[in-house]
Write a structure and sequence with these properties.
With about 350 residues, this protein is of the alpha/beta class. It contains ten helices and 15 strands. It folds into two domains: about 1-120 and about 290-310, 3-Layer(aba) Sandwich (Rossmann fold); about 125-285 and about 320-345, 2-Layer Sandwich (Dihydrodipicolinate Reductase, domain 2), CATH 3.30.360. Helix 4 packs parallel to helix 5, helix 5 (about 100-110) packs antiparallel against helix 10 and helix 7 packs across helix 10. Bound molecules: nicotinamide-adenine-dinucleotide. Nicotinamide-adenine-dinucleotide (NAD) binds near residues 70 and 72.
């Protein structure tokens, strides 16, 4: 059995606690939060679980093998480093850290001590995103574009801009699904509340091939939209996370270019471009809760000393893009190169 402690029992922490409570091979030993009311909530629901406001208490507890960190991002680095230095495996919430320098140091510490460092990129464990990856790897042909919209009204954050809050999901999905890593990013955005971080942003990601990606995130939209299009030379995918059942639709549609483009006029052009309007189907998708799959994998990785799907490298790659995108946003969309992305593997 792997003894687990969860730090941070605010909005997201309870999901980790509930799932760890039921994960085979895991024993939920303790929950830590600075707020007494949150600890009282744990005590009433899980009377057998130890509660504490003192994080350091977890570090010296020999029953605890792994610590899951679900505090706001600013505290991830400090808590994760302490946990790793105490010899504990770590699962840290997204975004992995507040800067790529912090993420890299966490990664190095985990590697030095041969500890598992996982990042909660929850979406990569959903049936829909796993299906999307399968389709991209086999069936879409050459991937031309990735185009995502993730907008809703609220919850305005004060410590991070909308890119760190919402685009982090798209970037983690792209990191998992696409066959290439981006080489540069450009972002524009705006804050509509004086002194607060940007609440709307548009990201463009460039790759070495002709693949291009665009992500639109917004806390000030009248409706909630979670839609992604992935276009390939053979097929195209529409992923709508708000669809209750048919989250993924695969379209056998596209264009084919016939012959060379020499010659002029409408007639020649029509001969060159053929439109393929084939069938659409909605593949079967595993509906198991993503966190259930993720935490089971985390426990197995700790038991077998293996790398999880979203490891520290994935976390670092995503943080590097978030950082570069925020830098670009501050400079009205200047293209910022993403160096050494391929080396973070
Ligand atoms: N994976 C996902 O889909 C997902 C969804 C939402 C939030 N998150 C992530 O989860 C993390 C927490 O977000 P949230 O919305 O639950 O925040 P929150 O503010 O609702 O809760 C954070 C909790 O952590 C506690 N806390 C803060 N610092 C602490 C410390 N040093 N020691 C112990 N407890 C401490 C706070 O008292 C609070 O109860 C963030 O990193 C966020 O990005 C992930």
């Amino acid at each position: 059995m792997i003894g687990v402690a969860v730090v941070g029992y605010g909005y997201w922490g309870p999901n980790l606690v509930r799932n760890f409570w039921e994960t085979p091979g895991a024993r939920l030993v303790a929950v830590c939060d600075l707020r007494k009311d949150r600890l009282a909530a744990v005590r009433s629901r899980y009377p057998a679980v130890h509660v504490t406001g003192d994080f350091d208490e977890l570090l010296s507890d020999p029953r605890i093998d792994a610590i899951a960190i679900a505090t706001p991002a600013a505290a991830h680095f400090k808590l994760a480093m302490k946990a790793l230095m105490a010899g504990k495996h770590v699962l840290v919430e997204k975004p992995m850290a507040a800067s790529s320098d912090e993420a890299r140091r966490m990664l190095e510490e985990a590697a030095r001590r041969r500890l598992v460092l996982a990042v909660d990129h929850t979406f990569v464990h959903t049936g829909a995103v796993r299906k999307m990856r399968d389709l991209v790897q086999d069936g879409l042909g050459d991937v031309y574009y990735y185009d995502s919209v993730r907008v809703n009204l609220g919850l305005f954050q004060r410590d991070v801009n909308v890119i760190w809050d919402l685009a982090v999901h798209d970037l983690s999905i792209m990191d998992y699904v696409l066959p290439e890593r981006p080489v540069a990013v450009s972002a524009t955005g705006m804050s509509h509340i004086a002194g607060e971080p940007a609440n709307i942003a548009y990201l463009n990601l460039f790759f070495e091939s002709k693949l291009i990606a665009h992500i639109h995130v917004n806390w000030l939209a009248p409706v909630k939209v979670r839609r992604t299009l992935v276009g390939g030379s053979s097929k195209m995918i529409l992923y709508d996370d708000l669809e209750p059942s048919e989250k993924i639709k695969v379209y056998d549609r596209g264009v084919t270019l016939n012959g060379s483009s020499q010659g002029n006029g409408e007639k020649v052009y029509q001969m060159l471009v053929g439109y393929r309007t084939g069938d659409m189907y909605a593949p079967h998708i595993d509906v198991a809760e993503a966190l259930e799959i993720e935490l089971r994998q985390f426990v197995e990785c700790v038991q077998r000393n293996e790398r999880p799907t979203a490891d520290g490298n994935a976390g670092l790659r995503v943080v590097k893009i978030l950082e570069a995108a925020s830098q670009s946003l501050a400079e009205r969309g200047r293209v910022v190169e993403l160096e050494h992305m391929r080396r973070i593997a």
